[in-house]
Amino acid sequence: MKLLICCVAGIFAWSATHVVAQSPKIGYVSAARIEKESALALQIVEELKKEFGQREQQLQALQKQGIELQTQLEKEGAKMPVAERQAKEKNLAAVGQQFEQLRRSVAEDLEVAKREKLIRLLEQANAVVRSIAEAGKFDLIVQEAVYSNKQIDITDQVLKEIAKRAGK
User: Fold this and answer.
1) Beta 140-142 vs 26-28: how paired, if at all?
2) Where does residue 115 fall: left (phi above 0), alpha (psi -120 to 50 degrees), or beta otherwise?
3) How far is CA 49 from CA 36, 79, 83, 85, 136, in A?
4) DSSP assignment, residue 136?
5) Assuming Cys at both sites, which of 39, 75, 122, 140 could form a disulfide with 166, CB separation 3.0 to 4.6 Å?
6) Hey, which residues does 141 pair with through a beta bridge?
7) pLDDT single digits (tens) 27-53
């Protein structure tokens, strides 16, 4: 019985030192770099430009129209007949109101689209991180850190894998 207890105690002692001696493998990923530098993030920027380009042009046209009306009123307003000046002022107010409505609408829609696309980006990036973690036998991958050593930073690996997957 004493021999059995000694063997069990020895096994526990050996396994405890073995576990302590084996340090966990930790990695770090910069989410900010993924959001700014990844191929998918660049694709998202291009998608947003295409999706909102026409509306941005409409905004610019309205702004130009408003500036032209404002300039015309400032230069010639005093010389214009009262009815014409009032009509131009009314037109300027209408253009200004239309511009503001469109600007707010574009800003809101753009924000929603950005949020949706960012969620998609983060989901795909997390999938890449998981696959790298499993393949590299990592015990822990963190995204936020006050400090990280370059040796544990796997952001470049993640960026390369995202680019590879985005190319497919």
Assistant:
1) parallel
2) alpha
3) 16, 43, 42, 38, 37
4) T
5) 39
6) 27
7) 999 999 999 999 989 999 999 999 999
